[in-house]
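Much of our argument rests on the idea that a fold can be written as discrete symbols. The record that follows shows the chain in one-letter code together with its fold in token form.
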Amino acid sequence: MSNIFGTDGIRCLVNQEPLTAETCLKISKTVAFLLRKKINQNSRVVICKDTRLSGYLYEPLVTAGFISMGMEVILVGPLPTPAVPLLIKTLRADIGVMITASHNTYEYNGLKFFNKDGYKLSTKIEKLVENIVSDNKKYSKIYSKAYKSGKALRLEDASGRYSEFLKNSLSKINNKKKLKIVLDCANGATYNIAPKIFWELGHHVFTINDKPNGININSKCGALDTRELSKNVLKNKADVGFAFDGDGDRIIVVDDKGNEIDGDKIIALLCKYLIKKSKINKKYDVIITVMSNKGLENYLKNNLKLKIKRTSVGDINVIKEMKKYKSSIGGEQSGHIIFSDFSNAGDGILAALKITEILSSLNLTSSRVFNLYENYDQIKINLKYKTKSKILSNKIDSISKNKKFNNNNIRSLIRLSGTEPLLRILVEGKDKKTVNSLANEIKSLIRPYLD
């Protein structure tokens, strides 16, 4: 069990390693040992969760681990992941924990840890946690000698604090037109707070999938499945629709014609209207990932004259590069959108509010506003695998280095997901027929190595 962390914290099926009850307790105690203030008795940790049933299992386990190490635990209940960095700051906490499996269905859960600055744990800290938890001798040294344990309390106004932060991120001009908006909350962490904010701002709000029951999170709804949102936008003749994922750090848009708008087009719109040319000569204005469409890259470079950098998949990689280069906006095609001026995390509600602000100031439909560039054709294929093996890794490398699949006309990306047992294939190019043919060829070449 050496690999506890994936590309975005810890995530797996409920009650399986590394999230059995015993290991979960070990992990929280180890994180407390490494990150809490050693000389300050008022060390604090903020614990948040989404709406999945197993939150009732992991919240008390994580709480017990931190309390046993003498920390004060502040429980805030179901709130989106981006609320955690904010609450760490306003409550002067040392650690933040989000109990979530993000876009996965309820059978999964996970832990996302944040340090005192509101950033997700570095790879270095993750490796330290893995080394200690996996070694009984090292773990035996993780304890508190004090007879006095920590304590837990529940913060009742956490959602209010986050709501005010979101409102304060908007322009103070009030004469902008109000919109008809449909929200798909994915039966997740945004179910309560998102509809309230948009209604309080004066918009006409229709909400779907806002009744979580513990097992319906991300189930045929939200950012991963916008079909129901599209139908409701058309049915209600809405100006725009917003779909969040289970923990609220991602967003996908549906325009007034019912078309899905992914993270790439969202980034393009935000860059067009929100990035102001700075006197400071930044090395990179925008950070995107290897998954982003070549059409977006061309638009940002050629039309907006912005400097971009691509990173590996994962919002943690985007955020790391944004911090390094002081970039204004970053994000992923999957819908993680990060605004460095406001947050250290992807924030679906914040992105939706910024989009709404732009739409409210223009006398254009959302379908017109998002029509900024032509995408290259992309094919994405997900294949299940049982175990990671050297043979599989070698085959991935072999295909990736083959110029037939990566040249001036075709771009291919083959990778193992860091959040679920899937091999992901992306093929991109200008000719749809060629893209389809090569995607199927890669699929055929790789399939025999998955079992």
About this structure: The mean pLDDT is 94. The longest helix spans residues 21-35. The longest strand covers residues 377-384. The chain has three domains: 10-158, 169-369, 377-449.
